[in-house]
Amino acid sequence: MVLKKKKEIQVDAFSLDCQQLEKLQGFSKDEEQNLASLLLHCAQLSNGIQQIQCIKQVMPLVKTMDQNSTCDPMLKACLEILGETYFSLDVKNPLKKVLASSLNSLPERFMTLAVQSFVCCLREELKTTDVYLYRKVLDNLASCMENFSLGRASIMNLYEEVLQFLQKSLLDIQEENRSNNGNRIVQTRLMHDLLMAIKVSMMLVQKLQENIQGSLWKNHESFVWQSMCNLLKSSTDFLTDETLLQTVQTTSGLAFILFTKAMYEPAEELPSLVSDLLCGSRKLEGMPAWFVNNCGALCTEQLSDSVLLFLCHGALAMLDWKSGSMGENGEKLLLDIVSVLLSLSSELKESSMATSLSRILAIWTNSALAALISDSPNLKMKLNGNSEVVRRLLEYVYTHWEHPLDAVRHQSKLIFRNLLQIHRTIITGSDEKSDPFFARLTKRLLSLEWHVKGKYASLACLVECLGTENILQLDKSIPVQILNVMNDQSLAPYASDLLETMFTNHKVQFTSSCQKSTWIDQWHDVWVSPLLLILCEGNHDQTTYIIDYYLPKLLRCNPDSLNYMIRILQASADANLGSWRTRGALGALMACLRTARAHGHLELSNIMSSGLVSTESIKQGLVHQHNQVCIDALGLLCETHRSTEIVSVEEMQLILFFVTYNLNSQSPSVRQQICSLLRKLFCRIRESSQVLYKLEQNKIKQELFEDSPKRNPLGILQKYRDFLSSLCDRLFEALFPGSSHPTRFSALSILGSVAEIFSVPKGQEQVFRLDQEMNSARVRTLIQCFASTFEEVKVLAFELLMKLRDVAFNLQDSESLDLLFRAAMDLSTSTKPYDCVTASYLLNFLAYHKDLQHICLGKWIKHNPQMNEDTSVDTVEKNTLAVIKLLLVNVEEEIFQAKKSLLQAAASFPMYGRVHCINGALQQLPLNNLMFITEWKQIVARLILMSYELSAVVSPVVQSSSPEGLIPMDIDSETADRLQMILNEIQPQDTNDYFMQAKVLKEHCKIESEKLADHKPMENICTEMRGKESQICDVTAQMVLVCCWRSMKEVSLLLGTLCKLLPAQAASEPSNGLITVEQVKNIGDYFKHHLMQSRHRGAFELAYAGFVQLTETLSRCNSESLHKMPEQWLSCVLEEIKSCDPSSTLCATRRSAGIPFYIQALLASEPKKGKTDLLKMTIKELMSLAAPSSEPASVIPQVHALNILRALFRDTRLGENVMPYVADGIQAAILGFTSPIWAVRNSSTLLFSALITRIFGVKRGKDENSKKNRMTGAEFFSRFPSLYPFLLKQLEVVANTLNSEDEELKIHPSLFLLLLILGKLYPSPMDGTYSALSMAPFVPFIIRCGHSPVYRSREMSGRALVPFVMINEVPYTVLSLLKELPDSTSLFIRHNSIHGTLLQVFYLLQSYLDSKQLGNSDFEQGLSDIITCIGSKLWLAKRPNPCLVTRAAFLDVLVMLSTHLGNSQKQVLLTVKNSPLSLRDCNMLWLDYRLYWIHLIFKAYVDCYKCWCCMVEEFL
Description:
Shape: globular
Strand order of the largest sheet: 1-2
Distance between the termini: 64 Å
């Protein structure tokens, strides 16, 4: 654990103008320091920190001045300058606060003079008329009212002027915002200015309200009253304006209540007024005229949900709820507010609104707690744990404690905690442990599954109320249960927090009632012993998360437990060494020691010297076959609580021992941890070496060194050098040719850390320098790492060489550098893709060499005149410019050759390598700070044209309908002309008439081949291509495709990089920018063309990456025309999708190819904190297109809409902004699945899959029926209420289809989707009958779905039925299902229906038996009735039933019952005692039970076959 150093504070210095300086100079005295000379000296300083120190000397000097100084013109002038300086400083400048703090201590005798000076300055500020300068005035007004007595006095003197300015600023900013509609950057700035103006208005009323008393109430014609009315009207307008930012509306709600509270009389009637507004009573006759005139919209119109929410917030925040000061009206308002908020919870689904609602509900619970201090009996009755309000709030908590938004989950926890506190306050004096509300709540929480994240925080709140001991009395195994949950990383933080609350509370309970000698063993048995057992034998994930999350908290609570852990583990370490699967006692010991040392609970030297842990034990840990044990042992050596702790010789020897055996670890995570831990060790060596250097320099103060005065600093430093030198030797030895990738990665990462940490800062000695260890062989070794096929190795080698470039270049002669440059140029045209990456890193490395110009001069002069050398220009820029010019000339020639023969280009000189090197060279330049502006402009223009030409050459392949198999594999020279002709002829064939016409390959004349024959070889061909013209190129389809899509990839990334060169203040006319607005627009059109038409995924995915860079650049640009381009492009593409033009080239196959990517990039550029109008407009358009239509022309737009929606719902950057549209997406997917067209059904299936993931989360395990990716029915329908009627209606349609009496097989297409959604729900003990959305209507339809002829559908209907049947209704439902089973004498038996019914019985009973109600008398009676009914249908388990599947299902029910009720044979005999069964029948039944698994296997094969037949029939 290393404490981070505080960042140095940056303070901008202020300066004075010439007139102010002359004034100070006139009052300054040379012979002595006075106030003027001090201020003059302060103004002449250029360091803000020094000016702060100087300002602090002002007041002590002023205090020495006597009363007569009030007439001194020098003092007056200085105070004026101080005032002017104060108002000129930025609000975030620390100098402003220091100056205000100093002036707060101004002597009273000078206060009048100072106020006069500040009033003059403030009056000048209030004369500001520029809207964009209002913010500075507003900031100054806020600063004056914030703990600044002189500022407040100045505002009080100018109260009317300030009010007038605030009115004017609110109106002017609002008008300016309207005039800039569409310019998001300017509007965002104006919105924040408006927000500040509202806040300042509120501060003025709150902090200076005493100044308006008298004139405010008595005379409604006064200026102050009229100003307050205007402020009230403005706040009402802002509150109801939906175009403003939500923060502006929220603050306006606060301001509205505050202004009304200040103006309304009598004050006792104010709660009634707010209640009327919230409840919509609109009683105008009882409201004051001034209120109706200024707030008419709130009085007469229907208030939107957002306005109601903000009004509730304003009332809770601005009214005084303490001690029930507002009386009965206040209590009614409090209850009305919570009623409104809870009703809004089902309406507001946008993420920002949902977050605000949860926060306001938490504020309401705090207000309720404050109001309960009044001891009002009525309020206590309304807010006790059994009341309707608390019950609805608990329902809100249960449905939101696993909300996707972290803020909502946190607020749900606060609401739950406050509800418990409310009930505790109400029952003060009663026994909390026996309280029915707490008992019922505890029972319900404990009955929840441990995968419910909300359970942990809620239980922690209950522990704080009731104590751990009371919870453990209900179930002693809770600690073990929680530890077993910690194999899931998503649950581990919640589980560890709950455990910390429990064991901390448990310790407090013990210490308050027992002596330590008696309670510590009990505490260890409950909390430590289970931990040690799991650490020794638990799986990898579980032990890792316990060590990371739980163990540090346990040791922090009771550090003395460490000795207990060491003693227990050390005793069994030799016998239980662990294995590759488990840590064993040795691994557990290493983990405990590492955690304890890292958190400062032990010193390693102490435990090693005392014999508690031996060096051999640590060595065993360092080479343990379990990877995590090795890491823990290494962490024990590297991690310390103090960053300056000296590394001992034993630790250094053990580190070298570890490195010898662990560099070749095959696990990437282990390698990362090794590098991270060694980096901590190197930081510790560096920090401790600095201490040793200081100690050596100050030998007189050696006794202050905390370790020992006997230590030899120079000796320790030498041991550090020897250790680091030995370590580097071993690492370079590991980089031999042919070494494995893991070894190279580890060695290079560690060497990079050494080079970075032990770099030499100015004026500081360093214990070790890696460059002193370098030689030519080691430099060659690093350069050879560029040849690795793993790019991360290239990156590490390049970064290390950059840190050592000076010594690396000095150790290489010019001939070697020339060979490297030639090799890089050769590799840039290699047909192996990773070779061009090697070339890029080589060229980037050589670009730092000052003589690179001379090395490549021979090739350079053939194409361009020599550039004038300028020694003042950065070497890297000059070299990079030369390299890019050379690469550009080569790639232009290669494009010319590729136009003649793309086949030969793919086989001999694929162009993408050159472009990749150009892109790599641009990446390392400071593109916004270049010197050769003219040359770079020319290069950028050529690069853009080259990109277009290269794209034109390769686009026919990537835009082909079948790019993967474009060219036959067996190519000879005789067919080369024909292949080239095909290439020239290819055009995309999958247009919108794809489904109407067949594809016909046109016969082509041989004109192209004749043209090719007439062409002669070019003379000026780059070196890499010479000698290859006469060779026969054996090219494959894969080579051509790779050449083409990689070329498109590099072009897209290059254009995306070039777009970043657009300056933020871009304009239509030429500027100093390297790229023009027109070029950016053309690049945008290029991306649109290729994203719309590319068919190869690699091509359009990378085009998307480049297009994202362009849209991000446009979103930051101040030019309104550029800023609106994404919106225009989006409108155009949506219109093209809707038009369904047969000539359109939009790809209707391949999941719409690049179209979703194009729209994703446009929407992702929209500011996340705004109104997201583009997203809302786009999704509404797409939803309308995705809806089923009877017109044939709407098929293609529907397919595109479904595919685009799928991409938007999968995009993590859109986050919670798409959640309000999930319900509409589900409806579109389910309805689309009923389409007769396969393309629509396919796209609907993909959309449905994306939505299931978005709703229930990413599937982490293999268990299809795991509850981790599920939610309760109440939570699901509360988040998506519109799905309730839709799913119910669709389910009814499906059930009616299955209810047909004829034998024809009828399977509704939506059956599977509906059951899949419903099967993702699960019942919760928290679900109650009070839910507004009753689950009962679904039950009969789901039961009928169990009669499906498809096995999978019957199984899913059984699982889907469970969450819709309340736990107390299960016995009745099971009995009704069992009674529907036919008797053995029935004439008409459908085994599909029998099987579906039995599966539903099985899953309902499984849920019932797992509900932890085994001790309930109703439970026992219900189970007895079920067993009796099962006995009457026992023939289904016997051989007279010919269907093996239904017999197996019945046996499943019997086995489950027997397992849960004890002795299975006894229970079966009890079941059949009243039925006419002989002993032989029972024996035959048990024979069937022994054949149970055979039946299961057989029915699985049979049903898979049946299911497959049904699916084939459905799709055909």
